[in-house]
Design brief:
Blueprint lengths: L1 E7 L4 H10 L6 E7 L6 E5 L2 E5 L2 E10 L4 H12 L7 E7 L17
Antiparallel strand pairs: 1-5, 1-6, 2-5, 3-4
Length: 112
């Protein structure tokens, strides 16, 4: 099993969720986060004063999938989250050793 974490622009979240649902992803965790990458934030003008916005709003999507679903999930996220502009985000893929459903005690693929 793999854990896929995608950090994307907030307005792309609904499109990503729909694309993942269409390929059979049954659950995910979504968190509103702030951060920056190469774009290093930006400068804004507010009531005549200029200030730096270092952390930009993003959404982090986390899902656990079987190894054979990883490439389809990555493709779905990339196709729907991409705007072609700086700040589109990143996708991280990590191994998952064990998953346990608290309510039933089911483990691994049965728990996902």
């Amino acid at each position: 099993m793999k854990k896929i974490e995608a950090v994307i622009k907030p307005f792309k979240m609904d499109d990503v969720r729909e694309a993942l649902s269409e390929i059979g992803v049954s659950g995910m965790t979504v968190t509103e986060v702030k951060g920056f990458g190469r774009q290093k934030g930006h400068t804004e003008l507010y009531r005549g004063a200029e200030y730096n916005v270092d952390f930009l709003p993003k959404v982090k999507v986390e899902l656990i999938v079987a190894n054979d679903q990883v490439d389809r999930c990555i493709e779905a996220i990339m196709n729907t989250a991409k705007t072609g502009k700086i700040g589109d985000g990143k996708i991280f893929v990590c191994d998952v050793e064990r998953v346990i459903r608290i309510r039933t005690g089911e483990e691994n693929e049965d728990a996902v």
